Amino acid sequence: MNLDWNKIFIGDLDFSFTLEIVLRTVIMFSMVLLILRLSGKKGVRQLSLFEVAIIIALGSAAGDPMFNKDAAVLPSFIVFVAIIGLYRTITYFATKSEKFESIIEGDPLYVIENGEFVLGVKKDHTFAKDEFFSEMRQESIEHLGQVKTAILETTGNISFYYYSDEQVVYGLPVLPKLYKEKLDSINNENIYACTYCGHAKKLTPGKHSCQRCDHKEWVVAINTVRLT
User: Fold this and answer.
1) Which of 67, 99, 122, 174 is the most buried (most CB within 10 A)?
2) Would residue 227 count as lying in a domain?
3) In terms of residue numbers, what domain contains 136?
4) Phi and psi based region of residue 112 (left: phi greater than 0; alpha: psi -120 to 50; beta: remaining)
5) Per its UniProt record, what InterPro entries does this chain match (predicted)?
6) 0.70 cut: is pTM over it?
7) Which residue, 228, 224, 199, 223, is CA-closest to 118?
8) Phi, psi (5° rounding) for residue 185?
9) How much is the average pLDDT of 7-34?
């Protein structure tokens, strides 16, 4: 199989057009930054799904004029104006109606309550438990029993509300080594946490189903206090 490297890397590129590509790219990139600044957002972590859609639309409008000599900059500028106008209009109506804001932005989602995962949360929102555990570890959380409430915000950020040291209960560990030591049959009497919902209870040797979610995998629960 012979590969045409010239076609792969250069194609029909007219080198006299190279400087114009650089200039077009600077113009379009500057316009994207300007529009994002006008939106008032400071970072990606603050973006909702609606705002991500706006950025994708801006990227699509900016892409072609950067390298396509047949695509002028002015039509893209008109698209930019239309997008920011739409953004401002929708944002205005969102501030006037909580129901409309909920449709556009979504609602905060309770993920943990009283040291246990909220049942049915996966039916309402898709998130990877491993990613959620990673977020918890970054907040120096060792197990669910340290957390009174966790809320997944519409921006993708997670808000944690903690138990005081005196209130910490036994919970499902989120440290990889401890979480991966799953058991479907208990050998020693101890306090265990359900790997699915985080419900913790004292179990005797044998097989057990979680009385809360009916799952059958367990790990040894811990009740260490949070280090800050």
Assistant:
1) 174
2) no
3) 109-220
4) beta
5) DUF421, UPF0702_alpha/beta_dom_sf
6) no
7) 199
8) -140, 125
9) 77
pLDDT at position 24 is 83
| 95 and 117 assigned to the same domain | no
Q: Please state the φ and ψ torsions of residue 139, each to the nearest 5 degrees.
A: -100, 15
Q: Give which of 193, 171, 169 is closest to 182, Cα–Cα.
A: 193
Cβ(45)–Cβ(157) below 8 Å = yes
Beta bridge partners of 200: 193
Q: CA 171, CA 194: separation in Å to the nearest integer?
A: 9
The DSSP bridge partners found for residue 218 are: 183, 194
* Residues 158-210 pLDDT 10s: 899 999 999 999 999 999 888 888 888 999 999 999 999 999 999 999 999 99
Number of domains in the chain: 2
